[in-house]
Every structure is written in structure tokens, then in C-alpha cells.
Amino acid sequence: MSQKCAHKGCGKKFTDPEEPCTYHPGPPIFHEGQKGWKCCKPRVLTFDEFLTIPPCTTGKHSIEEELPVDATVSSNQDETPVQGPKPVAAPTGESSAPRVPQATPQSVPEQALPEPESEEDDPSLPIPPNTTCRRRGCGVSSLSSTLSSREGEQCIFHPGHPIFHEGSKGWTCCKRRVLEFDEFLRIEGCEKREQHKFVGSGKKGKEAHGGGEERVENVKHDFYQTPTTVHASLYLKKISKANATISFSSPTTVELDLPTSDNRRYKSLVPLYAPIDPEKSAWKIMGTKMELTLVKADGQSWPVLRADERRTGEIIQVGKAGRA
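RE: above sequence
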């Protein structure tokens, strides 16, 4: 009787306990937008890429879950409760600091959305052996590329996206929520199709320029601010420093042309929420991101980084309040 391997990154069904097993012995890591495994070095930005990180350890299959390598601290050890900071009483009276007027965001023309990726495999494209189904939560690998061998296939997957909120984990397409990451990986798909999606249309993210260079449409970003500057991070791995172009073309825009060493390119004209001082602003390229230091021209608070982003409704005030 076949049994399912409990190792992270494997999950295969096996009958021979001596069969080699490739898996991740360490726990998953999610930090500052990056995702990976503690036992190996690859870090990615999207959850789909995280699920395709190849395992780094070879051993034997097991039906028992192993504790992560770091989980060596005994649960019987006495724990000293940590007291949080004492609440500070809110000051009474109204502040006399003048309110800085909010700048009206500039209208930005809408960009045409790319064509959605096909949900079925192109019959004219070959399917390499051991190719994993692209649909989330499926994980089935191809055995042959002939159409006759694909009769009777059934793909069980999640059409939605993973959601992690207040310790619970699940998918937006179904109601089940769990607490442990291993349990999350075992949540069965909620939708079925007759065939798996191994190669799709073969055109995902590609454009016919630069010899098949992949066009990156969007990158994740975040920022924080001081009374005088805005520090923004744009997360894109392997940016080529020698070929990258960053231009503070005007006080309200930043022009970006960021090619990467793995044949991708992110090109965008970023509309800023408020004007900056282009001569004092700067940028820096790092291994997994690019950092922008934008010097404010008027000192007002930025609720968002880009002028075309939807605001949260918060009013953020920076600086020192005046005396009453």
C-alpha cells in the first residue's frame, strides 16, 4: 500500500521505504517580502516561485513529520513573561502645529492589461518529463508528453491565492483555515479540471523584444519616511548595475529601466505622490532590491508612494508639534 511522504518539499506517494527522497529539512521563512527555506539559500518574491524551490537534502521517505532543525529548545523550560511597554497617556489639548495642505495627485493614464495566461496546455508544445503542474495546490509531475497518455487526467487545485492572516493560513477560494504551514500545504484543492496545466501557452510574461527578454509588469514595493525624506524599496532580484538606468526626470516622476542578469526587465515611469528635489535624491542597487532616497521638496507627509495608488484614508503627521 502506498503512503505519502511527510517531508517538506516532497509529498510523493511511495511503496519502497528505501527509495531516495529529496526534501527541505528546515522550516519556511517569510521576511520582508522574501520567501524561502532556512536550510538553503534561494529567496523568491512570489508564493508560486516559493513552491518551486528545489529541495536541498536527499534522504529516505518518512510518514512521520520531523521537527525543524532549530526546534531543539525544550517546551518544559520555564518561560519568563515579558511585560509590554506601559501605555502613555495621550496629551490633552489641541496642537497648534499648522496642518500642511495635501497635494492633489496627478492623473495617470491607465495602462493596458496584458492578455491573461491560457488555462490549458497548447497541444503543439512538448511537455518535458517531470514538469510540475502550474496550478496552485496540485503538484503533480508529468510522465510523458504524448496526448494519448493524458487521457483520464484529473487536476485538483486552488484557483485562488494563499492568504496568511493573524496566524491562520488558507486559500481565498475556499473556507478552510489551519495554523501550521505543513497543514496548509496539505489543504486539498477545491476545483477540478480534466487535464493538468504543465506548459500553458508558452508565452507567460514574454514579449518579442530583446531576443525573448521577459517583461516584468509589476514589482512589490514599500516605503517609510522622515520629515525630510522618503525611503522606498522596489523588490527585484539580480538587477544589472552596469545596465540599469534610474532618472529623476522631474520633481514628480522617477524613470526606471532595470534589466536583470537572468534576462528580465522592469521598465516604468513612476508617478510620485508629492514633489521631490531631484538633485539631492539618490538610489542604490542591492542583491534583491533597489532603494530610493527621495528628498521632499515641501516637507509634507506621504500616505502612499505613488500618485496612482489608492489611499488608505490615514492622515500621517511627521515632525514636532508646536507649543500651545
